């Protein structure tokens, strides 16, 4: 299971890196009036946002496969019938 998550994370990070490379190759970011600090903030913010979303989606997938969602569903159903 962890192997799949690591492969998914590597693929997503590679895709984000490839898009950044294409943007750099097409116009070298010269059309954007942003300093190098601003560009660094954009890149780090995008990377951290992607990492957080990948981690959360992996947690949802892992929770669903582990049956944790079913336990919470059954507990809620029992409380509603009382």
Written overview of the protein:
The protein has 82 residues and is an all-alpha fold. The chain has one domain (2-81). It is 87% helix and 0% strand. The chain has helices at residues 2-27, 36-66, 68-81. The longest helix is centred in the middle third of the chain and has 31 residues, at 36-66. The radius of gyration is 20 Å and the shape is elongated.
List keywords for this structure.
82 residues, mainly alpha, 3 helices
Structural class: mainly alpha
Distance between the termini: 38 Å
H/E element string? HHH
Number of strands: 0
- Main pleated-sheet profile: none
Query: What spatial form do the alpha-carbon principal axes imply?
Result: elongated
Please estimate the helix content: over 70%
Strand content: under 5%
| Structural domain count | 1
Which stretches are poorly predicted, pLDDT < 50 over at least 5 residues? Answer: none
Global Rg: 20 Å
Number of helices: 3
Mean pLDDT metric? 77
Transmembrane segments: 5-26, 38-62
Keywords: Membrane, Transmembrane, Transmembrane helix
